[in-house]
């Protein structure tokens, strides 16, 4: 893997400052020949730090700039004032991600999202069809599947145990309780039962790759199948893999993405 440099910046958004980290291969093709930057969108409890070393390795493997940001209310970004609406996945494309895109002047990009971030990547590809050159989803949910909801119910019980919230405080500080509520209460709300990304999937115009583990506790492989059906994605199912392929099977994920991406954009 080539040497990778990183830079941290804060960008203004409608509700506050967003924390952004950019990884750039130090020795690679000139910027105009690298391919479009890859923007990572994190999961429901995630943040930039919880991607761990994956962004650096992705930048090294692909030779592209990789960008990750903390959504408002998460990680090092400012707190979110209020509660999330049932449309929060689609709204992220035109609010938080839009602010990052404009601040960093990303005329073109590849969207790569994990879990609910995969849904946000889909929404971003649909919202900016002329700019999104490639879409990669990992363990994405595209509707409120019972398997997903049951996984969240079990997580709710686990986080109710003494000391469990401290795991989130390490990454989100005093915002941790809000982060947990934003995940559990939103997804388990009766209003969320009919949520689906089918309209956004039908609007995706760029090449797409749908990664999913066959033992994903937060969503069956039917999500990858639906992304393939409605957005024309190439589905890749990792055997004996759970909800976080980039952590459980990093070599396979990096190889799959770096092999596919040059053909996409």
Write the layout of secondary structure elements.
Blueprint: E1 4-13, E2 16-25, E3 38-41, H1 54-62, E4 66-69, H2 88-94, H3 96-103, E5 109-114, H4 116-127, E6 132-138, H5 146-159, H6 165-172, H7 176-187, H8 198-202, E7 208-213, H9 222-231, E8 234-238, H10 245-248, H11 250-264
Parallel strand pairs: 3-4, 3-5, 5-6, 6-7, 7-8
Antiparallel strand pairs: 1-2, 2-4
Helix pairs in contact: 1-11, 2-3, 2-4, 6-7
Number of strands: 8
Major sheet description = 8 strands, mixed
Structural class comes to alpha/beta
Poorly predicted residue ranges: none
State the name of the first-level CATH class: Alpha Beta
The name of the CATH architecture is: 3-Layer(aba) Sandwich
SSE sequence, one letter per element: EEEHEHHEHEHHHHEHEHH
How many domain regions? 1
Oligomer classification: single chain
Task: Please state roughly what percent of the residues sit in beta strands, choosing from under 5%, 5-15%, 15-25%, 25-35%, 35-45% or over 45%.
Answer: 15-25%
Shape: globular
């Amino acid at each position: 893997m080539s040497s990778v440099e990183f830079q941290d910046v804060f960008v203004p958004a409608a509700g506050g400052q967003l924390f952004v980290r950019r990884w750039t291969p130090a020795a690679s093709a000139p910027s105009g020949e690298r391919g479009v930057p890859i923007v990572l969108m994190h999961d429901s409890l995630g943040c930039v730090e919880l991607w761990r070393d994956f962004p650096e390795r992705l930048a090294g493997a692909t030779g592209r700039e990789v960008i990750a940001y903390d959504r408002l209310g998460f990680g090092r970004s400012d707190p979110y004032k209020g509660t999330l609406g049932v449309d929060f996945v689609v709204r992220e494309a035109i609010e938080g991600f839009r602010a990052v895109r404009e601040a960093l002047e990303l005329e073109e990009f590849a969207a790569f999202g994990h879990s609910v971030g995969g849904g946000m990547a889909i929404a971003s590809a649909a919202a900016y069809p002329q700019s999104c050159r490639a879409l990669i989803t990992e363990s994405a949910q595209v509707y409120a599947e019972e398997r997903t909801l049951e996984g969240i119910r079990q997580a709710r019980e686990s986080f109710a145990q003494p000391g469990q919230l401290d795991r989130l405080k390490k990454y989100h500080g005093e915002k941790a309780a809000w982060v947990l509520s934003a995940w559990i209460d939103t997804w388990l709300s009766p209003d969320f039962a009919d949520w689906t990304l089918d309209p956004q999937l039908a609007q995706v115009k760029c090449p797409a790759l749908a990664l999913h583990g066959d033992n994903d506790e937060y969503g069956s492989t039917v999500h990858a199948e639906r992304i393939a059906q409605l957005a024309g994605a190439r589905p890749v199912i990792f055997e004996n893999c759970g909800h976080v392929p980039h952590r459980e099977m990093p070599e396979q994920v990096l190889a799959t993405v770096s092999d596919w991406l040059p053909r996409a954009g």
